[in-house]
Design goal:
The protein is α+β, with helices and mostly antiparallel strands. The chain has 2 domains: about 150 residues, PurM-like, N-terminal domain (60s Ribosomal Protein L30, Chain: A); about 190 residues, Alpha-Beta Complex (Phosphoribosyl-aminoimidazole Synthetase, Chain A, domain 2), CATH 3.90.650. The protein has 11 helices and 15 strands. It starts with a helix and ends in a 5-residue tail after the last strand.
């Protein structure tokens, strides 16, 4: 260690630990690199050969950025860190695929109170494995040590990615038509939203993350850290299937804001749909947490996905073929309703969200047992 590095370490920043963390993660990151990645790990900027985009008639770049929210507090409490790497990738690339885009490259950012090399390597290993599973090159990242701002065991993660889609292949409200079928895709758990409510409920009941839950068959922490499902690759294969060409009109990633609001964002203004609660049974983790908090499932539809991770709005004539294709990819898929453009009273409907003037959605009926 140089004298300058030693002086910096006295202030709480250990550059040698950062270097070790990079060494521990290099092989996992390298596995996400195809021939398009130039220069490997460690440069000031990641380089990605975009010459393949010349094959597009009019390539549009799609970008997204996100984190995993207060789910990191549970990872820290349980000392389990690799699963939130998948959460991070899923929250980003599954937003990119919503417009029909293929993710190309991603970068990550980890802020921590103290660099613990194996912990950082575990986080990045989870990120790299999810990038590899979704065909996304992890081309760069940053680990920043913030002593005095974050506790020694505290950290937060964020990332950004870019993808590409042909201009005339963009999915969205413009493609949605009267009579389209709405398909739901099952979630793996809470994914990465609504954890402030989860943590509040457990704290109110004096429940620790390491405590065992008979209802969940595991500790609370283990059940809550189930990583976010990855939808990108199955959806891209379905979109690119010649037999389904043009059948998928819009996709909605069910994240912050809940079920109705996220679906409303991808429907055209003036259209509406009703999501039939009886078409699925919410996962046990949602039922148990709602019971602990004294909430009805209906009252938490704006905070939790309740078992729906993604929606697809598809052409009615090929809806079952789309569903079969996605089931063959290992996804759980079911129909929740249809889209209508007929005039009606929108009282009780969610209409658009996050600045988007979209369609109208409401959930109806009672959940299946």
């Amino acid at each position: 260690m140089s004298e300058n590095s030693s002086i910096y370490a006295q202030s709480g920043v250990d550059t040698a630990a950062g270097d070790l963390a990079v060494e521990l993660m290099k092989s996992a990151v390298a596995r996400t690199h195809g021939p398009e990645v130039i220069g490997g790990v460690g440069g000031f900027a990641g380089l990605f050969d975009a010459s393949a985009l010349k094959e597009y008639r009019r390539p549009l770049l799609a970008s997204a950025t996100d984190g995993v929210g207060t789910k990191v507090a549970i990872a820290q409490a349980m000392d389990i860190h690799h699963t939130i790497g998948q959460d991070l990738v899923a929250m980003i690339v599954d937003d990119i695929v919503v417009v029909g885009a293929k993710p190309l490259a991603m970068t990550d950012y980890i802020a921590c109170g103290k660099v613990v090399p194996q912990r950082i390597a575990d986080i990045v290993r989870g990120i790299a494995e999810a990038c590899e599973a979704t065909g996304t090159a992890l081309v760069g990242g940053e680990t920043a040590e913030h002593p005095g701002l974050l506790g020694v065991d505290d950290y937060d993660v964020a990332g950004a990615a870019v993808g590409v889609v042909e201009a005339d292949r963009v999915l969205g409200p413009e493609r949605v038509a009267d009579g389209d079928v709405v398909l739901a895709m099952g979630a793996s758990g809470l994914h990465s939203n609504g954890f402030s409510l989860v943590r509040h409920i457990l704290a109110e009941r004096g429940i620790g993350y390491a405590d065992h839950s008979a209802e969940l068959g595991s500790s609370y922490g283990e059940a809550l850290l189930v990583p976010t499902a990855l939808y990108t690759s199955p959806l891209l294969r379905a979109i690119e299937d010649p037999e389904l060409d043009g059948a998928i009109h819009a996709l909605s990633h069910v994240t912050g804001g809940g079920i109705a609001a996220n679906l409303a964002r991808v429907l055209p203004v003036g259209s509406w749909t009703e999501v039939d609660r009886a078409s699925w049974s919410p996962l046990p983790v949602f039922r148990h947490l709602a019971d602990l908090g004294g909430h009805s499932l209906e009252s938490v539809e704006g905070a939790w996905n309740l078992g729906i991770g993604m929606f697809a709005v598809v052409e009615a004539a090929r809806a079952e073929r789309v569903a079969e294709r996605l089931r063959a990819e290992g996804l759980t898929v079911w129909q929740t309703g249809t889209v209508s453009t007929s005039a009606r009273d929108f009282t009780g409907f969610e209409q658009g969200a996050k600045g988007v003037d979209g369609g109208a959605v409401r959930l109806t009926g009672a959940f299946a047992a």
